[in-house]
Amino acid sequence: MLPSPGFRHLPAVLTDHQRAGLQASINRMIEGFDLAASTAVFSTAADAQTRDRYFLDSARGVSPFLEAGCVDASGALTRPKAECINKIGHALHDHDEAFAALGRHPAVVAALRQVADEPWALMQSMVIMKPPGIGGEVRWHQDGTFLSDQPESVIGFWFALEDATPDNACLQFKVDGHLDPLSERYRVEHADGSNRFEALAPLAWPDADGSETRYAPCKAGDALMFGGRIAHASSTNQSSRSRRAITLHFRRAATDWCRDNWLQRAALPDFLV
Ligand SMILES: O=C(O)CCC(=O)C(=O)O
C-alpha cells in the first residue's frame, strides 16, 4: 500500500467557464428531478429498506438526496426545490459530459500520476449542495470507511464551485489524520441488502475545541485532494451563502474493489484516466 496522503490545496483548477458548465449541468439535473419519488424515500414514513435500496441504486445513477426536514407530513417540499437537495450522486461522470470532462481534467490526472504513474479509475462523483441556511452537517469520517480497495488507494478530490470559508461550512480536516488507521468499514451484503459497520481500530475524532482541526477555505475553482484515511467533516451551512462543491473519488485501476462496498458499478464501463 502507498502511504495515504494528507490533504493538498490545488488553487485555480477550474476556469470560470468550466465552473459555469458544471453549474449548468447541475441546474439541468435539478430541473429534471421529479422529487415525488425522492420525497417518498426521505419522508419519515419510509422504511429503512426502501432508503437503503435507493442509496445502493444511486451508485449507477444521478439521484438526489434530500436535506433533513424538507418534507412535510403531507409529503410536500417545505422550500424551493434546489434548497431541499443535500447531494446528488453517485455516477454523474457516466451520465453527463461536463462531469466526464472533470474526471479527465489534466490537473486531476497529473496529481494522481504523481501518486502512482499508472491508470486510475473514477469510482464515484457527487455534488454536495450545502444550500444556505439549511445545508446539513457532514460528520467526521474517513472515506476509506465507505470506499475500500485492496491494497488501499482511494483518493478524493473536492472542487469548490463557489467560495468556501468557515462561515459557509468549508471542509475541515483532522491535523495529521492521514497517519491514522482506518477506524471502521461499512460492509453491505448485496445478496440480501443488509449492512453493518465493522470496527477496525479505535480512533478519536478531533476535539470540539478546534485544536486538532484545520479548516480548508477555498476560492471558487480551487480543489482539494486527500487520501482515504484523513478524517474530514463540514458543519451545517447556517450562512446566507450557498456552498456548492463536487467530489470525485478514484482508485488505482490495478487494485481490487471490495465486493462488499456499498458502491458497485455493475454493468457500467470502467472510467479510466
Ligand atoms: O462537501 C462536504 O461538505 C463534504 C464532502 C465529503 O466529506 C466527502 O466527499 O467525503
Automatic annotation (TrEMBL):
Entry's Gene Ontology molecular function annotations: 2-oxoglutarate-dependent dioxygenase activity; iron ion binding
Domain of life: Bacteria
Keyword field: Dioxygenase, Iron, Metal-binding, Oxidoreductase
Keyword Metal-binding carried by entry: yes
Signal peptide: none
A family per Pfam: PhyH
Protein name, entry field: Phytanoyl-CoA dioxygenase family protein
